[in-house]
Amino acid sequence: MCGEATSYSGRGSRRYKVSDNLLGYFTYSTGYRVGGVNDVVACTPADLARAAAGKQVLCALPNELFYGPDRTRNAELGVRASLFDKRLQLTLDGYHIDWTGVQVPSQTVNGAIGITVNGADAVSQGFDFQGALKITPNLNLLGTYSYVDAHLTKDTPGLVVSQGVRYNAFAGDRLPGSSKNSGSARLIYTYPMSGGGKIEAIWATVYRGDIYSRVGLRGNGEAIPGYVTHSASLNYIGKQFEVGMFADNIFDKYAVTAVSNDLSSLNLVRTDVVERYYASGVLTPRRVGVEFRVHY
User: Fold this and answer.
1) 275: exposed, middle or buried (C-beta count within 10 Å: 0-12, 13-18, 19+)?
2) Looking at the domain assignment, is residue 50 inside a domain?
3) Distance between CA atoms of residues 146 and 182, nearest Å
4) Is the pLDDT of residue 3 over 70?
5) DSSP string, the chain
6) Out of 58, 235, 239, 285, which residue is the most buried by the measure of CB atoms under 10 Å away?
7) Is residue 208 part of a domain?
8) What is the pLDDT at residue 260?
9) Contact, 7 vs 154, CB < 8 A?
10) Rounded to an integer, what distance in angstroms lies between the CA atom of residue 17 and that of residue 5?
11) Range with the lowest mean pLDDT among 9-18, 51-60, 79-88, 120-129?
12) What is the pTM of this model?
């Protein structure tokens, strides 16, 4: 789920067993995520005077120093089913989160320093699917899929700041930091060995959809493209030890996973000084190795 609270203040749930192979459940909870302090110094009167004179200063206004908690009310409804003599197991749940004071990325007016601020009310809703299919006694297929619709529910004037300019955000603007669509698939083959050990081979594929860097792409926000990665491993698992080989990001996919600040901060030139505040995080390149574990 997008922005699930890190702490819960209340929770209640109900389960209903329709049959031996079908279970329904409902959960309602309230929660919050703590606020914090932005890592930037406060503006002094001298800083504000320099800023008024058109000079470059790096500091935070009083309302940019701290951000408060955001709070949620969460409802979830789901079913779990086992079919074909438990060879196929499914879990499907939908959820709705009412979110107040949502924490979103922004910038200081002076210096365009990345900070966190509290936005307006928002909603996050969607569904999650998990499935497991036993193709043969030794071959299993696991799959997941998630859909998230997270957006503001109220207009918020001046929510996003870029290079000292405040941009309004509006109801319906998509929240940053989460993919609308994501999923994974894992194919697992297990071969039992004499003496109680087994050989296990795994191929995994993961899909992550695009992510917004700013609310509704306001204030020079950008859509970080989605990507697909593949990994594989081959392991011997015994009673006393495990040994195996693995390869992550097999096809050496290059993808941006996150950005800091925004494109307006890329290679700026002011007072004959080139400034490079924009940065991007990238996916870990292909990684191949051997693992050894001892059980004790």
Assistant:
1) middle
2) no
3) 5
4) no
5) -TT--SEEEEEEEEEEEEETTEEEEEEEEEEEE--EE-SSPBPPHHHHHHHHTT----BB-GGGSEE--EEEEEEEEEEEEEETTTTEEEEEEEEEEEEES-EEEEE-TBT--EEEEE---EEEEEEEEEEEEEEETTEEEEEEEEEEEEEESS-EEEEEEETTEEEEE-TTPBPSS--SEEEEEEEEEEEE-GGG-EEEEEEEEEEE--EESSGGGTTT--EEPPEEEEEEEEEEE-SSEEEEEEEESTT----EEEEES-GGGSSEEETTEEE---EEEE----EEEEEEEE--
6) 235
7) yes
8) 80
9) no
10) 29
11) 9-18
12) 0.78
Whether the predicted pLDDT of 4 surpasses 70: no
pLDDT digits (tens, 9 = 90+) for 121-152: 899 999 999 999 999 999 999 999 999 999 99
Separation between Cα atoms, residue 160 and residue 169, nearest integer Å: 7
Within-domain flag for 64: no
Let me know how long the chain is.
Answer: 296
Q: Domain tally for the chain?
A: 1
The b-or-e profile of 218-246 (16+ CB within 10 A means b, else e) is: bbbbbebeebebebbbebebeeeebebee
Q: Are 29 and 10 in contact (CB under 8 A)?
A: yes
User: What is the domain range of residue 249?
Assistant: 7-37+70-294
